[in-house]
Predict the structure.
Amino acid sequence: MAETRNNCSQLYDEGDSSKQPSAFGNMFDGWSGLLTNNAGGKQAEQQPGETSNYQLQQDLQGYGADRSAISTATSSSRSSMLFDDKRKNSVQLGRRVMSEILENDNVANAIQILQQALDHLQMTDAEGKDEEEQVSKIYSQIIKSLCDPNVARIVDEMSKKNDKVPDIQESVLWRLFTKVVESGFVLQRDAHLAVISTLVDKDNKSLALKAMYTLPRREWDTLCYQTAILLHLLQDPKQSQEAQGLLTDYGKPYLEIASPVAPNRLPPVRTEMPLMNEVTEQDQFKLWMFYQSALSGSDEEWHKKKLAYEKLRRENMAAIKSQEEEQGVKDWALTQLQIETKKQRVDRISTDNDNTMIFVAMNSGQFEYGWQVYQAMGDAVNGATPCIAMHLCWAAFCQIPAANISRRTYWENRAWEVYSRFMCSEYLHPDENEAPGFLHDILLIAANSPESMIDKKARYTKSMSVYNLLVRLHFEKLLCDDRVLGPILCTLLYECKGSPTHIVTMCSKAFEIWNRKLEIRHGSISTTSYSVLWGLLVFCLKSGDKASMNKILRQLLEKDINEVPSSIIAIVQTIHDQHICDGCYFFNYMFQQIEFTDSDGGTRPISMDKFGFVYDNELKTSVDCQQTWRSNINELQAASVSMAVKTGVANKEELVPKQMYYSTKKAKALVRHCLKQTDKSLKQANT
């Protein structure tokens, strides 16, 4: 292991300037040298950690450096040819404005024309590509001219009201920019970046970020990615996750976003990225270095943690190399006696340091950096590495919006890479306490992975491949752990929709998994978590399986009824009304006030629907009210099960909140009644 670590940790030979490190590989040594050799220009002069907030803005300004400087002069006399036709063709207007600026050297008159025209200007409906390009070119030139500092000063002077320059959103620049963009025309990239630079200069960083994303992604080049990354880091609070997402997107030939119309039914929207075809691994590495340098200047605390780690890592690598050179008979003898040598101790400390840094990076939201630490470890891992690396993937996966399919898929693939490497390896024993957590994370990723239009059963297939492996290898401890079974049930809840046959299949699979646990535990079911029980009750509601319902009711009575969440009792009531009894005394029992029973003051009114989702406020009827879909089960897995129920089983159900009059006395009476009725039904079925 130590030899492998040494081979995997030779990051970059600083003495050989012609040798380039593999992109995103071992990248913790020689960063500043690589940045100086490869980045060029102003970026090359900065060392990581030296980028201040002011410098970030200066960098952003520099991206429009190729714009032409337009000499301007104000005229005391107004032109006799002002804009007199309010519906004039936008191309004609553009040519007129550019003529005033370039040929007549009359900026003031050009601005007057624009100010008069903007309120009434109708952008030309381009009938062909040539006309569209013509509009784009003309207005790109105008906008770049308005961003020129000399022209901007004249515009500010002309726009003053009470000796004050109006807000940027009232300016002729912003109004023209938004009118062109909203009309569907795509400005040239340098015009876009010029507007963004101007907005940052005027301390409108949030507006600058919005302007950045009005440029279609297919038009983005490396400069656009750099600009967007800086803008995300300039926001308050800083948007590190969004910046890291751009690192993930950079270099991809296409991006996939869930359809905004029907994300679960229509195929994702695919955006081709033609400018990314020429991006190399070295380009990706340079953008990564650009991000690290910018981040160091905007997050001092993270920068200190990173520098401390990298310093310690270099020291450990030097110590390991030194010990390898001095290794002799003594070390061989100690190894034979299973006594830790000095080299082994340094190697162990170095691995622990790497694991710790992955955890620190994850907690700091620096998921990409944590992944690079993991990759740089090579084969020098220990028993803690699998769970830390897998949880890193799950944490990063959770931070990405569900609509961003490309980025989610990127981290999901990394998670499966970790799973393939460590499952059934010497570093992950099935009987150790870490194994359930490792499987919990990969199964949650599988349950929440983007739906595939090609393979409708992709999520189900992924989850069941893990479960079937546990069955085949007889990992009974894992087959009974709710941290493993919970995410699998989530997958089944997501898929429990569509045709009645498919719904019955998903319910049967859920009960098969639970019954296997009961067989292994010899019928002892008291260890099942409330989250899993709630999910199983949902399957009972969809299938009407009274045998499984009977087993769950027995477990509820084995538990302390005072601790059973009312969300579970709510769905028991729903199952009773739909599948057990029709019109008996206990019909709608929990959702109505019972004389004498509810008059002793022990009843707690709760707003809840038939699935057990809690409504915190009064009953909501407004269409714009947002409901947070959750139960009142106080367990870590409850949120995942809630989301699976809402977006899967209950996706097309009408969920109407109503007042639930809950007391433990009523809950116990309902459960006993349902158990009695299911016992009777099962006896009748057997006879």
